[in-house]
Amino acid sequence: MATMKDISKMTGLSSGTISRYINNSGYVSRESADKIQRAIDEINYIPNEHARVLYNKSSNVIGLIVPSLVNPFFAQMATVLEKNLNEKGYSIILYNTNDNSKEEAKAVNMLRGFRVDGILVGRPQNRDLLKKVDVPAVSFETEIGGDVVNITADNFLGGMQAFNALYDVGCRKILHIKGPDIFEATELRYKGFKEASNKKEDVLIETISFSNDFDTEFSVESVLGSVDLNDYDGIFVFNDIAAAISMSYITKKGFKIPDDIQVMGFDNSYLCELLSPKLSTIEQPFDEISKECVDTLISMIKNEKIEEKTIRVKTNVVLRESTKKL
Amino acid sequence: MATMKDISKMTGLSSGTISRYINNSGYVSRESADKIQRAIDEINYIPNEHARVLYNKSSNVIGLIVPSLVNPFFAQMATVLEKNLNEKGYSIILYNTNDNSKEEAKAVNMLRGFRVDGILVGRPQNRDLLKKVDVPAVSFETEIGGDVVNITADNFLGGMQAFNALYDVGCRKILHIKGPDIFEATELRYKGFKEASNKKEDVLIETISFSNDFDTEFSVESVLGSVDLNDYDGIFVFNDIAAAISMSYITKKGFKIPDDIQVMGFDNSYLCELLSPKLSTIEQPFDEISKECVDTLISMIKNEKIEEKTIRVKTNVVLRESTKKL
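^ Those are the sequences you sent over. The predicted structure of the assembly is below.
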């Protein structure tokens, strides 16, 4: 690969002059600048980013840690975050931890080694490590505390909305399939769901827990196998992908959706439109969550004061075909 | 963040000694090594990766460029590639281009700036740029030529398998929904499909093209709206996500899958199991493609001779519920 030495040889200029030109860090005559640029173009020279980071003390790189790329929520969040960060001039180093807490800890330390300007972490597990991390950090989906700013959909509100949406379309015997205990977001959905149901007297609710720790390995048999589906007219599932698997199971058991059992998911990922019937769900507004993450992280990088340590973005009900028309 | 100077102050040792210890690049006494390690632990020091790269001339980082994270094929490929590369001691810098050729060119040059040890690029568009890129590069899904090694599912074979699978379950009027012309992989699926159909005399095939350039924006109305579905008993769609959208459309128009129309996808992504009926498809073996990509790229980084410039991995038929039982 072409180096600064090659440019020095071609132009007859010192590496100090060339470095000043490339880093835009001091006087270079018009004539020398033209010479250097011609040489750069000719040999297709790309400045060494590592030298630039050591020189500038800023990497313009953000570390993004997600627990899964095959969970549509995180795939879509990563896509939107990358787009928004690129627009602000940042590159991304992405780690996928497969919800493994050791992988996450390794990723945080790798990113520190890369001297990233900031870290964005989705559904984090290493609270203590992240609370004391020495770079600006923003978490989404799970709150950490400490100096880490938390940006999340209002999952408690979303849980309430899911209950009320099912209640409003006529469900009176509602099953909630709850996410793994370790995920704060799905705990809050459960609490919101329960809180809203407490206000109604003519409804029965039950909850079963899903305890596996990886979304796509949601084993529907182990969760729904112990349940008599005749007992329910509505099911609220903790996320869209688990709702899709549940719908497939319910249909196979001979129940019609939404006629026999109505189903609500959570996320409003692209999956909802691909299923038949199309999935009614609670929307986590990707664009808004991403924009808050990026704006907040950049403010922290600039050492601006952050007023709110937790920013909750309002969720919305999206009704499609897996629930009855009002 | 803690620096080498801090360790020097704490231990009273020179930065040369500390650097030798950290980079494992020369003699350090047992006593000094212990002192340095205690200081590192105490202040939670992480060596600067950029200094290490400049010193070692190797970054241990691989650049991964994918056209989409919301296409399950690329989400799963990125997941498997990252796992396999981590096992070999490499980190990943990931770029998602949204199938934008300018974004891809930008990503390639950013990765060159990071002095990555190698580049893996999925469904590339900038053939000329990549052919002459000055780091080892492997492409998957699309062949580039030049020094770039191409690892891909055997898409032509897959197209033949898709036709034969539909023929074997009784389809005689088959529609192929073809991918965008710019994607070599889907062109080859089309050619294989056509080639296999030429060998049968009792079958009619037709092809319509999908010309949008982003998978999830596959506008089913614009493609299937002009088609009379009564004319077909089988449909082969260029990938799983487009097959899912097509299935949803077909069902809405009142046709039963597989009784009226049988459907085959392509990829064998996790989506197949989420749909109802579950999608029959052609499998691209993710693990095998990823392993070939990683092994080949590492051989190239080690300057080993690569015998084959194109490695094609065999595809397989996976029958589920969207086709009839044999």
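The mean pLDDT of chain A is 90. The first strand of chain A starts at residue 61 and ends at 66.

Shout if you want it in another format.
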